[in-house]
Amino acid sequence: MMGAGGDEAHQLALSLPHRTALAREDFLVSPANEQAVDLIDRWPAWLIPALLLIGPPGSGKTHLAQVWRSMSGAALCRAQDVTVPAVPKLLSASALVVEDLPGPALDETALFHLLNLAREEKIVLLLTSRSYPASWSLSLKDLASRLNAMPLAILREPDDALLRGILVKLFNDRQIAVDEATIAYMLSHMERSAGTAQTLVDLIDRRSLEEGAAVTRSFVARMLQKTAPDESG
């Protein structure tokens, strides 16, 4: 869909440092995430062989976990995969990523068993979550203590530079040409989160194809109205 923004539009250059992640995708670096990136970069010189990566939806947890997997050769599972019978198999590699903790129904006993066995077997762990363990309503005090003592890598809501980079990358990935004025308009009118950026660009992509419309500032303004919260009641 190249050229959807009209003759004056062009694919904007990314101005942030980036790293290759998931083959074709870039992980953009800004003050909002550089602490987490720095901690990942320090592997394998981690003082403790475990790290908890925390950030809101769309902040790059999965991308950064994949970066670490490519470095460490780690296996991957999700929170719901952690059951007591599965723990030995999950720890069959030298490193493991457990994504999306605590999940819909955390098996606390299994996770505690996994942490203990990983420490005994000297297996490195990277856990990802949208929230701090203190908010997980854990009943096992030993598990809560272990998680609360784990080093944290924090991904924060994007700053201006990162949010602009995310928007530009999302449009470029879809071969949608937009101009700087349209990006600036989005930044000043949208909810400031990576998840919102993803939802909004998905909507713009779909509707511009359906309508055969150029992605102009007025078109984007119309899409922003569709994603605005309903304040009628």
Structure description:
The protein is an alpha/beta fold and 233 residues long. The protein folds into two domains: 33-154, 3-Layer(aba) Sandwich (Rossmann fold), CATH 3.40.50; 158-227, Orthogonal Bundle (Helicase, Ruva Protein, domain 3), CATH 1.10.8. The chain is 43% helix and 14% strand. The protein is built from nine helices and seven strands, in the order ββαβαβαβαβαβαααα. The chain has helices at 34-42, 61-72, 87-90, 108-121, 141-148, 160-173, 180-189, 194-211, 217-227; strands at residues 18-21, 25-28, 50-54, 75-78, 95-101, 124-129, 152-154. The strands form two sheets. A five-stranded parallel β-sheet has the order 4-5-6-3-7, with helices on both faces. A two-stranded antiparallel ribbon has the order 1-2. Strand 1 (18-21) and strand 2 (25-28) form a beta hairpin. Helix 6 (160-173) packs parallel to helix 8 and helix 8 (194-211) crosses helix 9.
Note the main attributes of this structure.
9 helices, alpha/beta, two-stranded antiparallel sheet, five-stranded parallel β-sheet, Rossmann fold, 233 residues, Helicase, Ruva Protein, domain 3, elongated
